[in-house]
UniProtKB/TrEMBL annotation:
Residues 1-26 form the signal peptide. This is Alpha-galactosidase. The lineage of its organism: Bacteria, Bacillati, Actinomycetota, Actinomycetes, Streptosporangiales. Residues 508-653 form the Glycosyl hydrolase family 98 putative carbohydrate-binding module domain. It is an enzyme of class 3 (hydrolase). Keywords: Disulfide bond, Glycosidase, Hydrolase, Signal. CDD domains: GH27. It catalyses: Hydrolysis of terminal, non-reducing alpha-D-galactose residues in alpha-D-galactosides, including galactose oligosaccharides, galactomannans and galactolipids. Belongs to the glycosyl hydrolase 27 family. InterPro entries: A-galactase_NEW3 (IPR018905), Aldolase_TIM (IPR013785), Galactose-bd-like_sf (IPR008979), GH (IPR017853), Glyco_hyd_98_carb-bd (IPR013222), Glyco_hydro_27 (IPR002241), Glyco_hydro_27/36_CS (IPR000111), Glyco_hydro_b (IPR013780). The keyword Signal applies.
Length: 654
């Protein structure tokens, strides 16, 4: 379960004073190269294995996507030779034997455009090539002569000593305009100053930047859900500064790399599109899933000529509603569920009848004002909304609706019958829903029976039809997440629904070591959490015997703060206890605070433990809790040595 930083959540909530429908961004002159946020492919994943051959192969794979807007083939570092030749940049002769001009010709022949990375400092960010510091005019003329259409200008090896009395922002405001002016308006200029201290969102538009980065610190996006969401949140905080001709850049599209689910990749693509962000693929274009990255309706929102950055109109920290005005007077709406459980998210579109087009499914429905959908965990629903007199009803179909504030999947115990509900609501209220039938499908080997009627003759506007289901997973069901799928069929339409439930067994009666149980969720800073050994930071099983202040413990959990380890307890457990400390394998370094959380509240904590101190006993009352979490937080310094031990950790249940 990812916990949103409190300060960041508060800042996002503060943005909700923006009225809806949103005002259009101010009109600014746009160079010919920047009529819409750039789209294409970056060689970042290739690193220093990039070559003319690999770039040509990527261009071949990207060319079929060009009609959708994917036009830029961007070399991200490692293309430069280590030294200039006669004062001029040259391509690495081993990787690019024909030079950049020949490569540009090949790319242009595919109907695409070529992008190159350069550095504002003395060296390139990777590959050891020279930077463009004090050579801006010559380098700009050279790459334009080669046929470069796009320059990504990095922030590496900046000679700060050459700018006495100036801070990082002032140095950036000196160096970036030099290259922008040298390139001229015909070349896309991507300011890649990831260091948040340069605050490019405050001045990037005035400097002529086509795009500018929105990171808080110098770190590219990682191919995982927490990283993507964190970067999106910071990007959203810069929305007021973005607009036509100068857009916020939250980094590359990750779809196809394999670190996230299809649902999470679809969410990223939706959030980037409604934010008018560059849609630059990091994966091989041949491996990027077309169902996500080649959706023309979603791309059209991102490329809309108004160029507006979608704004938050509603958020509670987990469930977000974003709205983006479009050039033809329509609106785009995204419902984003940041939490770990499917949830229904709703918004009011205003008075009158509205036509609602689901941009991921293509379904077209109507509503008198309310827009609602059950959105999967880590997922996003995306719509185009316009005024219309359609009478096709908008139906909200919820499978296993979440109780208020619960962001975990429902837990079913193996071999035991649990209860799941489904809800169908005539949200749009443009006409009655007639002859409604609901079906629930469970994994093979499971049992499901409707405990209440699963059909109804009519559902009027605003009414809800609920079905209760008895669901029994087999005793052998894997202790993991399992999908439930459903359909709501009615006169003139059918709506799919889905949810995820977790199968987990609560501890048996008596006292049990936690390291002998299976956790239901886990997060760890470095390496995996280890059972009965310390955390070794790398591969599983690389730890040592648990040892705190010279005392060895045969049982317990070894982790690296920040960490969270969660167990399902079904309300049948009473006490959890352990000895908290920093493992001796880091010497006297390391500091952390260890806690116990029962459902949504903290019930015990260790206080500060350090590598120089003895173990601290922690005892927590967990009476009635359904979920219990062990939490290890950083002690206030860096986290490099925070090897925490939950020694002799036990749980007592009835």
């Amino acid at each position: 379960m990812r916990l949103a930083p409190a300060a960041l959540a508060a800042a996002l909530l503060a943005m909700l004073s923006v009225p809806s429908p949103l005002p259009a961004a101010a009109e600014v002159p746009s160079p010919a190269a920047a009529q819409a946020p750039p789209m294409g492919w970056s060689s970042r994943s290739l690193g220093c294995s990039v070559s003319a051959t690999s770039v040509r192969q990527a261009a071949d794979a990207l060319a079929p996507l060009a009609p959708l807007g994917y036009r830029y083939v961007i070399l991200d570092d490692c293309w430069l030779a280590p030294q200039r030749s006669g004062g001029a940049l040259v391509a690495d002769p081993a990787r690019f034997p024909g030079g950049v001009k020949a490569l540009a010709g090949y790319v242009h022949g595919k109907g695409l455009k070529l992008g190159l990375s350069l550095s504002a400092g003395t060296k390139a960010c990777a590959g050891g090539g020279p930077g463009s510091y004090k050579s801006e005019a010559a380098d700009a003329a050279l790459v334009k002569g080669w046929g470069a259409d796009y320059v990504k200008y990095d922030w590496c090896s900046i000679p700060a000593a050459d700018f006495p009395g100036k801070n990082v922002q002032q140095i950036a405001q000196t160096l970036y305009p030099r290259m922008r002016q040298a390139l001229g308006d015909g070349v896309v200029f991507a300011m890649n100053n990831e260091d948040g201290s340069t605050v490019p969102w405050l001045w990037g538009k005035d400097a002529g930047a086509t795009t500018w980065r929105t990171n808080l610190y110098n770190k590219p996006i990682a191919d995982n859900y927490p990283s993507m969401v964190s970067i999106w949140e910071y990007n959203q905080l810069r929305a007021e500064y973005a607009g036509a001709g100068s857009w916020a850049d939250p980094d590359l599209i990750q779809a196809g790399l394999g670190g996230m689910t299809a649902t999470e990749y679809r969410a990223q693509f939706s959030l980037w599109a409604i934010g008018a962000a560059p849609l630059i693929l990091q994966a091989d274009p041949a491996k990027a899933p077309a169902a996500i990255v080649a959706n023309p309706a979603v791309i059209a929102v991102g490329q809309d000529r108004l160029g507006a950055h979608g704004r938050l109109v509603r958020s509670d920290g987990w469930y977000h509603v974003l709205v983006k005005p479009l050039a033809n007077g329509n609106r785009a709406v995204v419902l984003f569920n940041e939490s770990d459980r499917a949830a229904t998210i709703s918004t009011d579109l205003g008075a009158g009848r509205h036509l609602v087009e689901d941009l991921w499914t293509g379904a077209v429905t109507g509503t008198k004002g309310a827009l609602a959908a059950q959105v999967p965990a880590h997922g996003a629903a995306m719509y185009r909304v316009l005024d219309d007199q359609t009478r096709v009803p908008l139906v909200t179909f919820e499978v296993d609706p979440s109780p208020l504030g619960d962001d975990r999947p429902t837990v079913l115990e193996p071999g035991k019958t649990g209860e799941i509900s489904t809800r169908v609501t005539n949200t749009g209220a443009t006409r009655p829903v007639r002859d409604l039938t609901v079906r629930l499908t469970v994994p093979q080997g499971w049992q499901v029976t409707a405990r209440t009627p699963a059909t109804t003759g009519q559902l009027n506007g605003g009414e809800t039809f609920t079905v209760t289901w008895a669901v029994t997973p087999p005793a052998t069901a894997a202790r993991t997440d399992h999908p439930l799928n459903a359909t709501a069929t009615f006169e003139g339409g059918q709506v799919p629904g889905a949810a995820v439930v977790k199968v987990a067994a609560a501890p048996g009666s008596g006292t049990t070591y936690l390291s002998d149980l299976t956790w239901t969720a886990v997060q760890n800073h470095f390496g995996p959490v280890e059972k009965d050994t310390s955390n070794g930071e790398a591969a599983a099983g690389d730890g040592k015997p648990l040892t705190i202040a010279g005392v060895r413990y045969a049982k317990g959990l070894g982790a690296h703060a920040p960490a969270e380890i969660e167990y399902y307890t079904a309300g049948r457990c009473t006490t959890l206890q352990f000895l908290a400390g920093i493992d001796d394998e880091v010497g006297q370094a390391g500091s952390a605070r260890l806690e116990v959380w029962a459902d949504g509240g903290r019930v015990a904590r260790s206080g500060l433990v350090t590598g120089a101190g003895a173990a601290v006993r922690v005892t927590a009352s967990i009476q009635g809790a359904r979920h219990v979490r062990l939490v290890a937080g950083n002690g206030g310094d860096n986290a490099y040595s925070d090897h925490v031990d939950f020694a002799d950790a036990t749980i007592t249940c009835t």
